[in-house]
Amino acid sequence: MSAGASRESSGLRRSLLALYLFFTLLPIYWLLNMSLKTNQEILGTFSLWPEALNLHAYLRILTDPSWYMGYVNSLTYVFMNMTISILVALPAAYAFSRFRFIGDKHLFFWLLTNLMAPPAVFLLPYFQLYYSVGLFDTHIAVALAHCLFNIPLAVWILEGFMSSVPKEVDETAYIDGYSFPAFFVKIFIPMIRSGIGVTLFFLFMFSWVELLLARILTATEAQPIGAIMTRTSTASGVDWATLSAAGILTIVPGLLVVYFVRNHIAKGFALGRT
Amino acid sequence: MEWMVWTLPTALFFGVIATGLLGMTIWEVVSPTIERKGFLPISTTRGDRFFIGLLTSAYIHLVVVGFTDISLWLALGVSIVWMAILMRWG
Amino acid sequence: MDKREYQWAWLMVLPVLVLVAFSAVIPLMTVVNYSLQDILGRSAFFVGAEWFEETLNNSRLQAALMRQFAFSFTILAIQIPLGIGIALLMPKRGWQASAVLILITMPLLVPWNVVGSMWQIFTRGDIGLAGFIIRELGYDYNITANAVDAWVTIIIMDIWHWTPLVALLCYSGLRSIPEAYFQAARIDRASKWATFRYIQLPKLTNVLVIAVLLRFMHSFMIYAEPFVLTGGGPGSSTTFLSQSLATMAIAQQDLGPSAAFSITYFLIILAVSYVFYVTIMNMQKEKAAQQGAGGAE
């Protein structure tokens, strides 16, 4: 292949990627655009950018506790869920990747079936269950409910990462006199650091974006931001600017998480022995 | 527990499933399964056949309930026979 | 397999089992209990299989099921190839790689109902960019009145929302391939297609399994996005299964029928996913067997 053809094809690749990125960013840009306008401007004139930067909507959200507590609540249960999920999933994933035991394959598939259970199926029993154990409207209730799909996901992804670590690593460590807990914490976990990073990203993502369960399990004390946002639509019309600003702010925590794990993702993972 | 509105038939149903799982586990401890190929398109272990049996039985019941006037007891009977065939030759 | 048999491994799995069972088994049992009874406030009557009969013969639900399959397979057919394509196009290193990665991931981090709101704003004829431009071009675009418009919009929204997941997983899979493989391919003068087919695609199998299964399951449960964007309309042209279920369970408080519907719904997902899972696992097993026979150590 000649250098010219290669440059040409790389130019084509760049434009295709740019086109896709444009498609990805356009709706987000539009939301940002709306959030910086006043409601009069949104409904009055159609323009591709705001006439003047108007941070009113953001100020309102960031200074009114009934608004910003929504973000705090969401982040609280998301981090609770991430902690619980990763702690229980690590040993389980190790067991699945290294050992055979009775029912292992069926247990694994059963875990996966919980990813398939539509949250809508469980709404009423969940409400009843958490109400009867006195956890209704607490952060931990939502964190536990999200374990339904996040623990299986964590086990699934971590198992893939662990299987790509050769078994000889374990055996060498035992010969060197490491006990299992010492080996697991000091040698094995550092080896799959990327895997843990990637898993945490997925755990954050799926807990952060889920709202059906989060909404039915909370009332006022632990209400997620997604539920508070419905306040913007009232009988007198929709407060487009505030809705847009709140929407833009929901993307920010996730962006921080991606920023931290970007190198782990870019390092690559094949998940398991290929 | 009251909110779970248990009734005798569902309690029996879950009892049977739990006993089945327990039985399969004990059987597995006593004599471990060997993966083999029967009339099913994939090679299966005993546990796989048990799961496939339960899932297909659920579908047999759904079809009978939804689209025919045949008694459910007959569906249950067919399912048990099907389960036996599957476990033996599947 | 080369795994060691070790029954105490059960202890490592136990915490997962307990937590997931608490969140899954108790509610599932309750749903089964509901499905056989007529529940009015505090009293419940045993009605047998009546709700199942009603659900299975409900033509609205049958239509929703057909729509659901059409939707799920359409988005899979678009998102999987598109995701692989994007992953192949993404820069491999440097700050561009990080930047593209972060930008591409953005749609995944938006809460699902916000995705709906975002696209509602984006496609409105009066204040939305897409809606406004399409109307200016002379097409009477209206997702609240035209079923085709609503369908196409929901599919584009889902592509926008979820293709990044496929791209992200594939990108990581591709990045795990040692550079030496590509050098070997270059020395052999392998074509681009051959490199993709025999080097890159095999390495992607595992991540693609996750991508396909996750995409199927999530698309089959899609609820918040179309609910916010179109409300299931116009008519019921974009009412998918989860929304029909939520309407029954929450709006109408029909516990028994919605429980029967839940179980049927779950059995369908279970069967389809099991077939997917077994097929893929079997493909991998055969591949491993071939490799084992070819390159015995």
From TrEMBL, chain A:
<dbReference type="GO" id="GO:0005886">
    <property type="term" value="C:plasma membrane"/>
</dbReference>
<feature type="domain" description="ABC transmembrane type-1">
    <location>
        <begin position="71"/>
        <end position="261"/>
    </location>
</feature>
<feature type="transmembrane region" description="Helical">
    <location>
        <begin position="240"/>
        <end position="261"/>
    </location>
</feature>
<feature type="transmembrane region" description="Helical">
    <location>
        <begin position="75"/>
        <end position="96"/>
    </location>
</feature>
<dbReference type="InterPro" id="IPR050901">
    <property type="entry name" value="BP-dep_ABC_trans_perm"/>
</dbReference>
<feature type="transmembrane region" description="Helical">
    <location>
        <begin position="139"/>
        <end position="158"/>
    </location>
</feature>
<dbReference type="GO" id="GO:0055085">
    <property type="term" value="P:transmembrane transport"/>
</dbReference>
<keyword id="KW-1133">Transmembrane helix</keyword>
<keyword id="KW-1003">Cell membrane</keyword>
<protein>
    <submittedName>
        <fullName>ABC transporter permease subunit</fullName>
    </submittedName>
</protein>
<comment type="similarity">
    <text>Belongs to the binding-protein-dependent transport system permease family. MalFG subfamily.</text>
</comment>
<dbReference type="Pfam" id="PF00528">
    <property type="entry name" value="BPD_transp_1"/>
</dbReference>
<feature type="transmembrane region" description="Helical">
    <location>
        <begin position="12"/>
        <end position="32"/>
    </location>
</feature>
<feature type="transmembrane region" description="Helical">
    <location>
        <begin position="108"/>
        <end position="127"/>
    </location>
</feature>
<keyword id="KW-0472">Membrane</keyword>
From TrEMBL, chain B:
<keyword id="KW-0812">Transmembrane</keyword>
<dbReference type="Pfam" id="PF09928">
    <property type="entry name" value="DUF2160"/>
</dbReference>
<keyword id="KW-0472">Membrane</keyword>
<protein>
    <recommendedName>
        <fullName>DUF2160 domain-containing protein</fullName>
    </recommendedName>
</protein>
<dbReference type="InterPro" id="IPR018678">
    <property type="entry name" value="DUF2160_TM"/>
</dbReference>
<feature type="transmembrane region" description="Helical">
    <location>
        <begin position="6"/>
        <end position="30"/>
    </location>
</feature>
<keyword id="KW-1133">Transmembrane helix</keyword>
TrEMBL record, chain C:
<feature type="transmembrane region" description="Helical">
    <location>
        <begin position="69"/>
        <end position="89"/>
    </location>
</feature>
<keyword id="KW-0812">Transmembrane</keyword>
<feature type="transmembrane region" description="Helical">
    <location>
        <begin position="95"/>
        <end position="115"/>
    </location>
</feature>
<comment type="similarity">
    <text>Belongs to the binding-protein-dependent transport system permease family.</text>
</comment>
<protein>
    <submittedName>
        <fullName>ABC transporter permease subunit</fullName>
    </submittedName>
</protein>
<feature type="transmembrane region" description="Helical">
    <location>
        <begin position="6"/>
        <end position="32"/>
    </location>
</feature>
<feature type="transmembrane region" description="Helical">
    <location>
        <begin position="259"/>
        <end position="280"/>
    </location>
</feature>
<dbReference type="GO" id="GO:0055085">
    <property type="term" value="P:transmembrane transport"/>
</dbReference>
<dbReference type="InterPro" id="IPR052730">
    <property type="entry name" value="Sugar_ABC_transporter"/>
</dbReference>
<keyword id="KW-1133">Transmembrane helix</keyword>
<feature type="transmembrane region" description="Helical">
    <location>
        <begin position="204"/>
        <end position="224"/>
    </location>
</feature>
<dbReference type="Pfam" id="PF00528">
    <property type="entry name" value="BPD_transp_1"/>
</dbReference>
<keyword id="KW-0472">Membrane</keyword>
<dbReference type="InterPro" id="IPR000515">
    <property type="entry name" value="MetI-like"/>
</dbReference>
<dbReference type="GO" id="GO:0005886">
    <property type="term" value="C:plasma membrane"/>
</dbReference>
